[in-house]
Amino acid sequence: MGMLSLKMLLRDWRAGELRILALALVVAVASVTSVGFFADRVRQSLTREAHQLLGADLAMIADHPWPQSVRDEIARQGLRLAESTGFISMARTHDQAQIVAVKAVSGGYPLRGKLRVAAGLNLPDAETGAVPPPGSIWIDERLALALALTVGDALELGAIKLSVSAILTLEPDRGVSFFNIAPRLMMNLADIPATGLVQTGSRVWYQLLAAGPRASVEAFELWVTPRLGRGESLQSLANARPEIRVTLERAQKFVGLTSLLAVVLAAVAISLATRRYSQRHLDGCAVMRCAGASQRQLLGLFAGEFAALGALAGAAGCIAGYLAQLAIAWLVADLVAVPLPQPTLLPALQGFLIGIALLLGFALPPLLQLQHVPALRVIRRDLGLPRERALAAYGAGLTVIAALLVWQAGEARLGLIVLGGFAAAFVVFGGIAFGALHVLGGATRVAGLTWRYGLANLRRRAATNTVQVLALALGLTAILLLSFTRGDLLATWKARIPTDAPNRFIVNIQPEQRALLLEFFRDHGIAPPRTYPMVRGRWVARNGAPVDVEHYVERERRLVEREFNLSYMDALPGHNRITAGRGFSQDDIARGALSVEEGIARSLGWKLGDRLSWQVAGQTFSAPITSVRKLDWDSMQVNFFVIATPGLLASAATSYITSFHLPPAQAQFTSRLSQRFPNVTVVDMSAILRQAQSALEQVIRAVQLVFLFAVGAGILVLYSALLATRDERVQEAAVMRALGASRSQVLAAQRAEFVALGLLAGLLAASGATVIGFLIARQVFDLAPQVNHWIWLAGPLLGVACVAVNLVAGARAALNQPPLVALREM
Fold it and tell me: Based on CB atoms within 10 Å of each CB, which residue in 407, 408, 437, 599 is the most buried?
């Protein structure tokens, strides 16, 4: 039985019966395993480097210095202690300046894992148990290249000069950082006071690291957890780097769900290909039944053939998926800061099981029907598959797809949402296509003979033509989204930023420096910008009720726990638009009032009239919300979530912030500014935006690679749908030619049908891409949607181009076969 199944597989493969089915399986398995392999490599890297995620067994992070009592308890428990302080600042050479992420560390850092340094760029690195000695710094490769620094050069940081003594190649608690905005500079903690960079209003993170015996670590964790205050957090290996874990999980789900589009389309292709296979093997099954073959024997033969096909196609798909994940890793190589290990076999097993599930769900039901083919079909060709079993077969396939969606999504709720989204897309596109085909099929009075016959075929094969239109529309929608819509979003975003919009921010300006700073601008021929006061404060109560951190979810909880940057002024900025309430009145200024940004008000539940209490430098004040503002973040102006009237904050310790536009011709102004005011931080937003856009482009290229599987699956569905009606088209062409139609007339009739299919699919794709683009612009990017009229031309043209390929192949098959042969088969 097994050898006969293999012989049938070889025979059907040579006859071209199973190629589309095999390709659909390969595409489905490859799309899933490519994502699975890459996610598995990242997951392994995180697990392998788990001890380096923190550089310790416990890491305590705060936005203020830790009290001595915490250090004393660490010592009492017999744990080792190390400290680090981090902030963003400007580093300078004699003619250049660069924003850097400064990390100042104490001796003994890290407590777990090792630092790695090199004696120079492109030289071998090695582990080290030391930290930068006082007076020296270690810099990473990005900073060395940005400022053309080598070991031994001097670099200014704040009010002091430090010597570059090594190139930093690896630090434990940055080992899995995927998006690094600023280059790293590591220095000795003892050098921080001399820099003068940590001043009032500076945003600084203070970290304590502890390591030791497990029992002592657990005892200290139990002691410190209930004592954690606002702005203080504790991280262990169980919850290390939650922001990275969440980012990776979301990215994995996004790309994984993208691959599901390929799985869904491949399932349709498998169903169509198996249906055609079953139809073409009815005669053979009837003959075998006449020769004495039982239903069980027929089922065993076909099941063995398809099991062998599934194994071979699954193995090929796993190989293709492995090669594709190598391409994905290469496309995002600049974003991944750690070497990725080789993947395990688990993703291959998962992909293989998905291939088997698709076979069981969409190929096995039609094969089960073959065993019920009556032997009487040998003399009665009108007898075929029992139709009462078709509903059960499609039900099994839909159940498999639903299970795959839920499994791949990782959670039932998300999977069901995606399943509903796919179902809605299929129903909407399918319903429109089916209705349009009937309308076009009835419009035969306005066309010539060949066009009239071609359009009539749209209605005659409405079901199979709907599948063709649906598959092509989904594939074209993905292509249009990846090209036109993405470009429109970037163009809209850029258009919202004026050419003279501020591209530099200055923070940490001290009160006594304001007049000197503005004079410095005038001396260099640049219009002095407006400076805004900034005060650090914590939100502690609303309408007299203390803030309950546990009441908020993850993102809102981080907002509540951190210190806010508050500002105060008599009148609200002109680039803010009041959406509720009013501007500050004289009565508000006298009594005290607050204006809040509408997004944070919505997130934290603030409403007009609420009385908020704030703690600033140990003092508490309360004031009502008198207005809600909408901020134009793309204006690149200075914006604040909360603005108070001056009487509430004027006596608090204040620093100032400003933004300004620096023309490219005056790029050296930043270096001179940093040299004149070493404590201020100049943030070059143009550089950061370029880096962020570069990172986004890399991610988009990786996602495009996964989308290619979906596009390939869509083409397979289209071709499968064409094959499903090829025999019928061949017979129709034979009848037309027998009745006197020429080859050109037959070809013109098919051309009319295919052009209509392509135009309809292209229009559906253009409308789908436009709607999705509108939703992305509004809901994700908060941009005003732009109508791209070219998409309505590109969609139909692409649709016609795709069906043209199938037209050539289908016409050749229909016209090259002699009419007599096709009529005999009828």
Answer: 437
